[in-house]
Amino acid sequence: MSNPVTAVPPAPAAEVAARYARRLAFETDCADVHAAFAQGDPAQGGPAVGAVGFVLLDVRGPALYAKGHVPFALNLPRGKMTPRRMAEWPAGTLFVVYCAGPHCNGADKAALHLAELGVSVKVMIGGITGWVDEGFELAEW
User: Fold this and answer.
1) Residue 27 gets which letter from DSSP?
2) Spatial distance between the Cα atoms of 125 and 57, rounded to a whole number of angstroms
3) 63-81 residue pLDDT tens
4) Per the database record, which ranges form the Rhodanese domain (predicted)?
5) d(CA 123, CA 109)
6) Could you report the per-residue pLDDT of 6-42, keeping only the tens digit for each?
7) How much helix, strand and coil, in percent to the nearest 5, is found in the chain?
């Protein structure tokens, strides 16, 4: 029986596995970030790093950040991501960036910018919208 789902056969399992393994190298999600923070206190070892192994960056403007942001996230809009600023963290630091949500490409632009600076980066898909949709609390500044 053919329908819109089955009309095109699925890719071989090995190709599917390779695609999604590769995709996870570029992104993480709100639940994984929340779980990482629940496992370790980001306040130990520096600004939002230490036990969790990454720095979470809210790339929205300061006014939106002040209204509500993911706990432990630092506010660093893309325009402030200079080589000098990023050098404040040890080489090899992983940065996880997020913006408002699926309707916003600020996190993608920030990830591109950081990658062009030679920095390790992933995008937290969903952004603030995804965080709230998961039922997680926001912090205010």
Assistant:
1) E
2) 13
3) 999 999 999 999 999 999 9
4) 50-140
5) 10
6) 999 999 999 999 999 999 999 999 999 999 988 865 5
7) 40, 15, 45
The CA distance from 136 to 98, in Å, is 15
Give the residue from 48, 46, 44 showing the smallest Cα distance to 96: 48
Cβ pair 28, 124 in contact under 8 A: yes
- Cα distances from 97 to residues 15, 30, 64, 76, 124, in angstroms, run 28, 11, 15, 9, 6
What separation in angstroms does the CA of 105 have from each of 97, 111, 127? 11, 10, 10
Strand blocks (E) in 21-93: 27-29, 55-58, 74-75
Structure tokens at 71: 């706990």
Give me 23's structure tokens: 């995709």
pLDDT at 134 over 90: yes
Q: Are 79 and 114 in contact (CB under 8 A)?
A: no
pTM: 0.88
